[in-house]
Each structure stands twice: as structure tokens, then as C-alpha cells.
Amino acid sequence: MFRLTMLPAEDGDCLLLDYGTEEKQHHVLIDGGRTSAYTAARPYFDAIRARGERIDLLVLTHIDADHIEGLLPLIADERFPVEVAEVWYNGFDQLSGLELYGPEQGDAFSAALKARAWPWNTAFGGAAVVLSNGKPFEVAGPGGLKITLLSPTRQALAKLRATWVEYRQENGLPAAEPEVPAGLEVYGREALEVTPENVGALATSATSVDRTVPNGSSIAFIAEHEGRRLLLAADAHPSDLVRALRDHNGRTAREIHLAKISHHGSKANTTKQLVQEMSALRFAISTSGARNKHPNPEAIARLIHGRPAGVELHFNYRTKFTEIWDAPAVTGAHGHRCFFGSSDGVISIDV
Known about the structure:
The strands form 2 sheets. The protein has an 8-stranded mixed beta sheet, covered by helices on one side. It has a 6-stranded mixed beta sheet with strand order 5-4-3-2-1-14, with no helix packed on it. The chain is 30% helix and 18% strand. The protein has helices at 36-50, 65-68, 71-76, 92-95, 103-116, 154-170, 199-204, 213-216, 238-249, 272-278, 297-304, 328-334, and strands spanning 2-6, 15-20, 25-30, 57-59, 87-88, 137-140, 146-151, 220-225, 228-232, 258-260, 282-285, 312-315, 337-340, 347-350. By secondary structure, the protein is of the alpha/beta class. The protein is globular, with a radius of gyration of 19 Å. It has 12 helices and 14 strands. Helix 9 (238-249) packs parallel to helix 10. The chain has a single domain (2-170, 193-350), classed as Ribonuclease Z/Hydroxyacylglutathione hydrolase-like (Metallo-beta-lactamase, Chain A, 4-Layer Sandwich), CATH 3.60.15.10.
């Protein structure tokens, strides 16, 4: 088995990767979503304990609130039911060896992680999880999992460290979350109408690309098990992913069997160039649509327009921003299929 479960993380990511045999499974937890996600995820951790297993790897991809919030109650829970064998996370100490949005939560997680004494970035000698010479490279994961690191670069982490230093110097953060720039993510209260006729225009429309510092620091990677390849893009910049995938693929296009697309389906992170480079037909999109109205229609249009038949869209939430892609006229015109999670926002996908 090789299965990705998207847990109800609201507008964020809380992903559980399970693989192995029915008798012996391995588990990788990627991010924690919003605070409420921990309560929703707790039964899954209890089930891992009941099997006598552990979380083999916990990856905090970056310090945006919609990825880190749910891990704070997890790491603070003295009754957390399972062993965590390894943590990948770029905290301030790891960035110090390099020559944010959310540094306060990042510092809190670092302090709690030190108190827990869970093994931290040991696969990287305790230093930062970062590309070697700017190139993707393989890391041996638990239970025979092969991991190919795609992001972040040293330059991206250096920018994050500068922001984090500024935060520490100022010794405080604004109470309110910053506004999302109008025109980049926000469409207003209603979802943009999608018709069979306008999907092509959405797919080819010119949009700004993501250059935000925290997203650029994302730990993004390919996980491979028994020949099946899963792309976990976190919120990585599209240009970084394109560059890394080209370096990784070389002259041979390597199929991605499932891609968890970057930044919850933001049009600024899913470019036509990236879609082409991924060589994937199955996509996972994790978001409730809260705050930023994700997924953006341009991003989803790029996944289906002019693509081979058989594209699959897996959404953990059914919202007005996702169900528009399941309209019979739209699926009939573009040949894709939509899958939605349960009413509480959980969906499991076999890679």
C-alpha cells in the first residue's frame, strides 16, 4: 500500500502518508494545518499506536500558520500517543549556518521540539534541510521510502533567516494576519463562474507568480515507494519546482503518479510550465477555501485544459470553489473526474 490522506486542515495542509504492508506500515506526517486539525487527526494517531507503530518522519515544510498551527498542540500534548522517530524542520538555529512570516510560531515549535528531544534533521547532520549545490538529491527514508528533495534552496532560506532576524529584533508581530493583495488571490464572496467555454481562457491567462519568502522556504519532495511516485509540493515556488524537476528528470521524463499541488491551488503557484514538467494526471488539492478562496480557477484550468484524458482532481473539501469543476458540462467537455472528501474534510488516495 502507498496512500496519501488529506486531513481537515481548513485552508492548510495536514497530510498523512502510509505505506508498507498490512502487517507492517510506515507513517509520514507532513504539516499540521490549522489548530483544529490536531483534534481531527488524533484518531489517526491513536490507530497508529494501536498497531504498535510510530510516526517514522514528521515534516514541517515551512512556518506559515496554515501549516504549523496544528503541530503546536501536537508537540505540547504530554499524552501524544505515538513515538516520532525523526523531524525535518528548518528552525532559526538551522538557518544560522547559512550565509517570516510566522517566526513567533517557528520559535515556539523549535523550543517545544528541543524539550521533546525528538531527533531533528539527523538525515542532514542536524543542519538545514536544503538542496545540495542547488540540485535535488535523494535521501533514504524510513521503510524503504525513497525521498528526492526538490526545495528549498540556500538562497530561499537566507531570505527567510533575514526576515526571522528582523522579527527577533523587533520582538513582536502584528496581531492581525496580513491582508492578501487584491487581484492575487481574492475573487470576492462568490466563486468565479466556470463554463466549458472559458476554461481555456483561464488556463492561458497571465497571472503573477508566487515570490513570498515563507513559501519559497518550503520543504518539497518526491516520495517513491515500489515504483510509485508522489510529489508533495508544500507551498513551493513554481520556478523552484520546475528547475528541480528538470534537474531530477534529466533527459527522461519520470511520471508523477499523484501530485499534491503547491499552495492549495493558488494560481500563483500552479503555472502551465510546472504542470507540463510534472507529467502528472492525478492531483490532490488540500483546502477549505477559507481566507484565500482557494483553489483559484486558473490553477485548476491549467490542470485539465489541453491535457490527456483521465485527469483526476482530488479535493478534501467540497466547497463552491471545488464543486464547480464537477459540473457535468465541464467534466464532459474536458474529460476529467472529481473526487471529494467526506463531510468532515478527509480523503484518502492510493498513490
